[in-house]
Amino acid sequence: MKKVILCLAILLLPTLCFAGDSDAERLEAAKRYAAVANFDRMMTDVVANIARTMPEKDAKIYVEFMGSLMEDGAFKKTTVILMAKHFTTEELNTLADFYGTEMGQSILTKFGPYMAETQVVIREFIVKGMEEFKAKRESGELSS
After folding, report:
1. What are the Cα distances from residue 6, in Å, to 9, 10, 18, 69, 76?
2. Closest CA to 19 of 121, 90, 71, 75
3. What are the φ and ψ backbone dihedral angles of 34, each rounded to 5 degrees?
């Protein structure tokens, strides 16, 4: 009998661990976090900071173009769905709770400039890495 109870406990453990974490609950928690974090503002800040690295005439056109891409809400919808996919309800609610605080809001105001600078570094890193990879692959230094 102890073995049966142990087997049942093992089989039910995943269900018990995720009780109260339905897709709908995660989606609602993700929407709450997105509202608190204000992804539209964050993305607008990122775009504005990237635009500062461009010539003025290009920057204005870039900001307008990126703004038009944001108008339909697809970016926000996609990020909410992806958050619900990767995070638990508890994690999303914890994020919303934190970013709803004064400290959390202060941190969020810094994400735009941070993301803009980080994006440039990441892009340069990836491009340089791909160039080096291609050169080493073509020279035979890297082979499968």
Report:
1. 5, 6, 19, 54, 44
2. 90
3. -60, -35
Q: Which of 108, 119, 97, 102 is nearest to 52 (CA)?
A: 119
In one-letter notation, the amino acid at residue 41 is R
Q: What pLDDT digit, counting tens, does each position of 121-138 carry?
A: 998 999 999 999 999 889
DSSP designation for 48: H
For residue range 22-35, list pLDDT tens digits in order.
889 999 999 999 99
Percent of the chain scoring above 70 in pLDDT: 86
Q: Report residue 128 as tokens.
A: 């340089």
Going by C-beta distance under 8 Å and a sequence separation of 6 or more, which residues neighbour residue 54? 62
- CB–CB of 133/142 below 8 Å? yes
